[in-house]
Amino acid sequence: MAREWDATTYDSLPLPHERWGQRTLARLELDGTETVLDAGAGTGRDTVALLEAVPDGRVIALDGSEKMLAALLARLADRPDLRDRLTVLRADLTTPLPLREQVDVVFSVATFHWIPDHDALFKNLAAVLRPGGQLVFDCGGHGNIAAVERVLGDLVADRPPVWPFAAAEETADRLAAAGFVGVETSLDPDPTRLDDPATLRRFLETIILGMDLDRLPVDERAGFVNAVAERLPEPVIDYVRLTGTARRAG
Ligand SMILES: C[S@@+](CC[C@H](N)C(=O)[O-])C[C@H]1O[C@@H](n2cnc3c(N)ncnc32)[C@H](O)[C@@H]1O
């Protein structure tokens, strides 16, 4: 199963993910009746927007983290109108997905770079998407957080690679091989500046360094986060977003 996330700190941070979610939503073509899979739904910010965008449809919020899904359910506690059309599913995107029926749309923000094997991921997503159904996604792409990775490479000898930051063309080829058509992918720099040192540290710890911190003894983690923050050339997370739109072949 995927690793746990600190959902409370996640939601307290100034997240560029909000912008990425909105622009991924804007690429969907909806008539309001669709069943949408939010793959890597996290604490459910975009799940709520999706439920509002499909008033006669349903949303399946899938994530591997129990804490993120608990925060998602808490977000919807006072929205029984939306909750009724939501299914919450704790599942692992690295394996075939345990969905009972096919969906009309697969939507995903800031998640696919946590999945090492994109060939398998796209095949698994195609298997749960109806013929003609839409896939829209955002994730870290080639060159994403290169400055952070340089610092990590300096700090950790023989650090194993964590993220498969893929290029646009290879992703388009993978999607075609997995049975998608009308594929459009692009790669766009989107640096995020975090001038407040405490916010930069919390952001690194919660959003970026989880896999690296999991490998360290608990009492060394805060020092490691400080060392990464101090060594960055400027207080900037040098994001590069890989975005994609495709339909499953009919
Ligand atoms: C950066 S968060 C993005 C969450 C949300 N989409 C957003 O934009 O705020 C990445 C999410 O991917 C989930 N995730 C990572 N690897 C996963 C896996 N193998 N299976 C399922 N979920 C996974 C994490 O639990 C986390 O909630």
UniProtKB/TrEMBL annotation:
Alphabetized Gene3D superfamilies for the sequence = Vaccinia Virus protein VP39 (3.40.50.150)
- The residues the entry assigns to the signal sequence are none
Sorted UniProt keywords: Methyltransferase, Transferase
Q: Which InterPro entries match?
A: Methyltransf_25 (IPR041698), SAM-dependent_MTases_sf (IPR029063)
Q: Which GO terms describe its molecular function?
A: methyltransferase activity
Q: Which residues form a coiled coil?
A: none
Provide a GO biological process annotation: methylation
Q: Which domain of life is it from?
A: Bacteria
Segments forming domain Methyltransferase: 36-133
Protein name in the entry: SAM-dependent methyltransferase
Organism of origin is Pseudofrankia asymbiotica
